[in-house]
Write a structure and sequence with these properties.
By secondary structure, the chain is α+β, with helices and mostly antiparallel strands. It is built from 22 helices and 19 strands.
């Protein structure tokens, strides 16, 4: 069976291409309208002509694919809020000017030690009715309750640009938020917020209220904070309250997918609903009524779970499956996946960039294409062993499907993932079913204490088990360098191997060999790039100085960190993993660095720079030296002045003014990020 024989799969690929083109190349909305109109007219004429001739026309197919690509461009453009006439970006926002902002709480986000965070929708700025999304940061106040979804508030504050990462290969939070159409953030405190009474309730607000009711009911029982956070993740799709240590345990055990409501959870819920509602089939139009109820309940669950990318994808797919099951028509899983993906991307085009969305589809593709091949290897005689073998092959197939993209994003591989999945997956159906019963009984106030305690104990034992697996650190392979070229070449290899296992022939053996050669080419190219990219990097680090000197696949680190900062800092780890560096050495900071013909002079708080033997090209100022910069420039004549994150802000402003006066380049790592000298 060739996947590209299915039209919907081809159209989904074309739609995805269109979204990517629009996102990266910023094509004009007006130009897109003209193009799509012209293509639809030509496509209609081509369709009528092909229909009259009763022959397949290759030009009609090409036009259809080109039209779908253009639809992808149009869809991405239409969802880009900057194209809206009343978007706040039309105001020409000034960051030094305070605005009176009226807004609605859209989503409660994971907080940090200093701020409570929310995604908000703008209603009004000053007196103008405008729209758009912002990131709201409220200074922590233990005496104040958290805000709720749909709360409408007013505050006066400044817009702040969301900063790009200041160090190379750092997580780009700005880009992440832009893919959710959030381009600015605001900071405020509770006492500056004024709440407006409103009776308007959105769908998200209703779901949040329902989750709050469920949580308040559950809090009446003896569930611990960790147990409640896992219940919220498994059954309500809310992970923001999970303890960081517990979350890392699930990651290191290879079972973090358990905490994201996805296809596994929704599939189990569909099976449970199909079984419970089976008696409805006996009445007139029973199958139709049952299907409508199942789809309604699945989407109700999706709304309660926050309509995340993974749950929306899963519910869309299993809605199609539910229809297929109940009208007794066979459904092709590849078609089902493509249909769900196509419609999701029409309504949420930037889901395409969501890591959970990508992992979900690749896991399901791995299961449906690889699991049958693995299962055929051995046919157990006993039913219990057969079930365990099924779970084993499903887990292995899913892991193969997501392995390259997991290495690309997370750079680690949990070696004991099979053990954790063999134990947890068979129990997940029971845990979900039990959890639904517990929540239902708690809502109507008839949940017996011993049932709540039993369910809490099950969750605790699951957490303990994940903690034990995660503590086997010798089986967790971390800091694996795996770039985008490796990602594509390994997926080519997996695809070619699956095709070879289905049917062995000379053509498919050649494809496998080509895939292996492509991986070797990528490996050689990366070695070449690593050897030919040598640089000295002055990283940004608040209160400290951090310098890296990279040659070939080695880097020497110079810093003045204290022991606590040294343990927590991930700057060097991110850099070494991304740049395929194998060897890391540490040394004490020097006053002078010589890189080929370029020289760097470091002036620290002692402000000693009496040098006569050479003229430095670069000067790094660290730990706020009391230096007359004008005199220093006149005597040394450097090409660039650099100030890292260890300096006082007042000193940096004075130095910047001096350099501007002298028309000398000034690099402040607090604003411009790391300074890189290539050689």
């Amino acid at each position: 069976m060739k996947l590209l024989d299915f039209i919907i799969i081809k159209l989904t690929i074309c739609l995805s291409i269109g979204i990517l083109v629009s996102f990266f190349f910023q094509i004009s909305l007006v130009y897109t309208y003209y193009t799509i109109t012209l293509l639809l007219v030509v496509l209609s004429i081509s369709f009528i002509k092909a229909k009259r001739q009763f022959t397949k026309n290759i030009w009609f197919g090409l036009l259809a694919f080109l039209t779908t690509i253009t639809i992808g461009i149009l869809v991405e453009n239409l969802h880009d809020q900057k194209n809206f006439i009343n978007h706040y970006s039309q105001l020409e926002i000034k960051e030094n000017k305070p605005y009176t902002i009226t807004f609605r709480i859209r989503k409660v986000l994971k907080m940090n030690p200093y701020y409570d965070k929310y995604a908000i929708d703008i209603i009004k700025i000053d007196t103008k009715n405008l729209r758009g999304k912002l990131l709201l940061n409220i200074k922590k106040d233990t005496l104040k309750q958290l805000l709720n979804v749909d709360d409408i508030l007013v505050t006066k504050t400044n817009f702040k640009t969301i900063k790009s990462p200041l160090n190379p290969n750092q997580f780009n939070y700005k880009t992440y938020l832009e893919k959710q159409y959030i381009y600015h953030q605001i900071y405020t405190q509770n006492h500056t917020l004024h709440k407006i009474r409103t009776k308007t309730i959105t769908l998200s607000g209703f779901a949040a209220q329902l989750r709050n009711i469920i949580n308040k009911k559950l809090e009446l029982y003896n569930f611990s904070v960790d147990e409640l956070s896992i219940i919220n993740a498994l059954l309500l799709g809310q992970r923001q309250d999970i303890n960081e240590q517990i979350y890392n345990n699930y990651i290191n055990a290879g079972a973090v997918h358990m905490l994201a409501v996805s296809g596994l959870h929704v599939g189990i819920i569909l099976i449970l609903l199909n079984y419970v509602l089976k008696p409805i089939e006996t009445i007139k139009y029973g199958r139709l009524i049952k299907t409508i109820i199942i789809i309604g309940l699945l989407w109700s669950f999706a709304i309660i779970a926050g309509l995340s990318a993974s749950v929306t994808r899963a519910v869309t797919m299993f809605s199609v499956v539910a229809i297929g099951i109940n009208i007794k028509r066979p459904t092709n899983i590849y078609n089902t996946l493509a249909i769900s993906m196509f419609f999701l991307l029409l309504f949420k085009p930037l889901f395409l960039f969501d890591v959970g969305f990508q992992l979900s589809y690749l896991a399901v593709l791995g299961i449906v294409s690889i699991q049958p091949l693995l299962y055929k290897i051995w046919k157990p005689r006993f039913k219990i062993i057969d079930k365990l073998w099924q779970v084993f092959t499903v887990s292995l197939a899913a892991q193969v499907g997501v392995l390259p993209i997991s290495l690309f994003y997370f750079h680690q591989f949990p070696g004991l993932f099979m053990i954790s999945n063999l134990v947890i997956i068979p129990l997940l159906g029971f845990i979900l079913g039990f959890g639904i019963v517990v929540i239902a009984l708690a809502i109507i106030n008839i949940l017996p204490e011993f049932i709540a305690d039993t369910f809490g104990s099950i969750i605790s034992y699951m957490n303990y088990f994940m903690n034990w697996i995660a503590n086997q650190e010798q089986f967790i392979f971390k800091d694996i360098s795996f770039g985008i070229l490796y990602l594509f070449s390994f997926y080519i290899l997996i695809t070619s191997l699956v095709q070879l296992l289905k049917k062995v022939n000379a053509k498919r053996i050649k494809l496998v060999l080509i895939a292996i050669i492509s991986i070797q080419i990528v490996f050689i190219y990366i070695i070449y790039e690593t050897k030919n990219t040598n640089e000295l990097i002055i990283f940004h680090k608040n209160r400290f100085t951090l310098i890296g000197y990279k040659t070939n696949n080695k880097i020497t680190i110079y810093n003045d960190f204290d022991s606590l900062t040294n343990q927590k800092d991930k700057t060097i780890r991110n850099y070494t993993v991304a740049n395929h560096i194998k060897y890391v050495n540490k040394d004490s900071l020097r006053s002078i660095y010589s890189i080929n013909n370029k020289k760097l002079l470091i002036i620290d708080s002692l402000a000693v720079y009496n040098i006569k033997s050479f003229k430095p090209d670069y000067i790094l100022l660290r730990h706020s030296p009391r230096v007359n910069l004008q005199r220093l420039i006149d005597s040394i004549h450097p090409k660039v002045i650099i100030a890292d994150g260890s300096n006082y802000t007042s000193y940096i402003k004075r130095w910047e003014a001096t350099c501007r006066k002298q028309k000398l380049p000034f690099h402040q790592t607090t604003k411009k990020g790391a300074f890189i000298i290539k050689f």
